[in-house]
Amino acid sequence: MGIPLPGEFGQRARDILAGRLAPVAARDAATVVVLRDDPLEVYLLRRKATMAFAAGAYVFPGGSVDPRDADHAVAWAGPSPAEWGELLRADEGTARGLVCAAVRETFEESGVLLAGPAEDTLVADTTGWEAEREALIARTLSFVDFLNGNGLVLRSDLLKPWAHWITPEVEFRRYDTRFFVAALPYGQRTRDVGGEADSVAWMRPQQAIDLARSGEISVLPPTFHTLSEMAAFDRIASVFGTDREIVTFMPQVVEVDGEMRLDVSR
Question: Ranges for the Nudix hydrolase domain (predicted)?
Fold first, then answer.
C-alpha cells in the first residue's frame, strides 16, 4: 500500500511521526488545468531536471502565490474575492491571491491570459507581451502592474475550482495548492516554455495516464489523480458543467511492515 519512502525520506517520516521533527509550513499555491477540445486535451509542462521540487515531472501550469497577487488594485471581473473565499474555503485575501496567482502562473508558463480589456472580453493575441512575461517570471514586475499597465481586467469567471491538495508533511518543500480548470481562450495559443520547464505538450488525459503507468513520463499523485478525473470527460463543457465539491486532501505517511510509505489513496 502506498509509495515507498526509502533512505532519508523514510527516516524523516519516522522523525515527523514521532514528533522529533516539525514539518515545514506549506505555501499557498495555485495550479490550472488548461483544456482544449476536439479531442479533449490537457496542457502539460515538464519541469527542468535541475528543479528542487518535482524535477523532471510533467505538471500543469502553476506555482506559489506572490504576496503582490493579493493587491486590491487589480481590475476584476467575475465572482468576487469574497465569493471565491467561500468556494475555496479561504479568507477573502487568500482567495484573491490564489485566483490572481492562477491567472498569472498560467500566463507565465503557457502564454495563455485569462484577461481582457473589459469584463466581458478576452485578449485574442498575447504574443506582444513577451518582455512583460519574462519580467513576471523574474518577479521584477507584479501581475497587478502588468494588468493595470495594459488596461486589462482579470477574468475570474473563466476559472472553475477543482481540487485542494496539500504536499505531504515528509517533503522538504510543501505547497497548499488549489487546483482550477480553464479553457484555452479562442484565438490564443500556447507558446514556447520559459522559466521552470524544458518542454510542453498537449495530451489526451488517458494518453498521459498510459505514459505515466508505463514509466515513459513522471507525474506526481495530484497530477495523476486529476488526469484520471479529466479522462471521464469528452468536452470542456462537460467539465465545467459538473458539480464539484472541493475536498482538502494531504497524502499521509504510514508504516507498513516496518517500511515507511506514502498513502496517496483517496
Answer: 25-225
Amino acid letter, 13: A
Give the sign of the dihedral formed by CA 103, CA 104, CA 108, CA 114: positive
Give me the amino acid identity at 198.
D
Calculate ∠ Cα 61-94-170, nearest 5°: 65
In terms of Cα–Cα distance, which of 185, 144, 187, 178 is closest to 160?
178
User: 112 CB contacts (<8 Å, ≥6 apart)?
Assistant: 34, 43, 61, 106, 126, 182, 184, 185, 188, 190
Q: What is the mean pLDDT of residues 148-164?
A: 97
Phi, psi of 126 (to 5 degrees): -110, 10
CA–CA separation, 88 vs 234, rounded Å?
A: 26
Higher pLDDT, 153 or 245: 153
pLDDT at 52 (0 to 100): 47
pLDDT tens-digit map of 164-220: 999 999 999 999 999 999 999 998 988 765 666 678 889 999 999 999 999 999 898
Angle at 134 between CA 80 and CA 130, to 5 degrees: 90
For the chain, give every domain's residue range.
25-244
Q: Sign of the C-alpha dihedral, residues 100, 108, 249, 68?
A: negative
| Least confident segment among 81-85, 151-155, 186-190, 221-225 | 186-190
Cα separation of 121 and 185, whole Å? 10
pLDDT digits (tens, 9 = 90+) for 22-34: 999 999 999 999 9
- Using DSSP's 3-state secondary structure scheme, residue 247 falls into coil
